[in-house]
Design a protein that fits this description.
The chain has one domain: CBS-domain. Helices cover 30% and strands 23% of the residues.
Length: 128
């Protein structure tokens, strides 16, 4: 099987200039743990719950660009699922943006592949 067969197509994204508060609202509404960050159609980073945690006191005044992880590990839609699993486990990350010709077309997560996240999930976002 290939990544394109299990990925979530056209994922919800964040813009680099939006606030963390706005990104958190998107994450909660969709039940996501991370959002790809896209500028002019190109993937420039990924924002995770872990990134948000570092800025809890300033969610309304901090922009995504300041908190995101730049240049995330990505995968091609033609990659095998075995390759995606190896990347996720090897890098100890929970998701891979799927990129084709420099454009974000999807995301594949540990949940899509039926294995646990590499780190325990924080409860702090769900308690607020």
């Amino acid at each position: 099987m290939f990544v394109r067969e299990l990925m979530t197509k056209d994922p919800v994204t964040a813009a680099p200039g939006e606030t963390l508060c706005h990104a958190l609202i998107k994450m909660r509404a969709g039940g996501f743990r991370r959002l790809p960050v896209v500028h002019e159609g190109k993937l420039i980073g990924i924002l995770s719950e872990y990134d948000l945690r570092r800025h809890l006191e300033a969610l309304e005044s901090t922009i995504v660009l300041e908190a995101m992880t730049p240049d995330p590990v990505t995968v091609s839609p033609a990659a095998t699922l075995e390759h995606a699993v190896a990347l996720l486990k090897g890098k100890e990350i929970g998701a891979l943006p799927v990129v084709y010709n420099g454009r974000l077309i999807g995301i594949i997560t540990a949940s899509n592949l039926w294995f646990p996240e590499p780190r325990p999930l924080p409860n702090w976002l769900r308690q607020q």
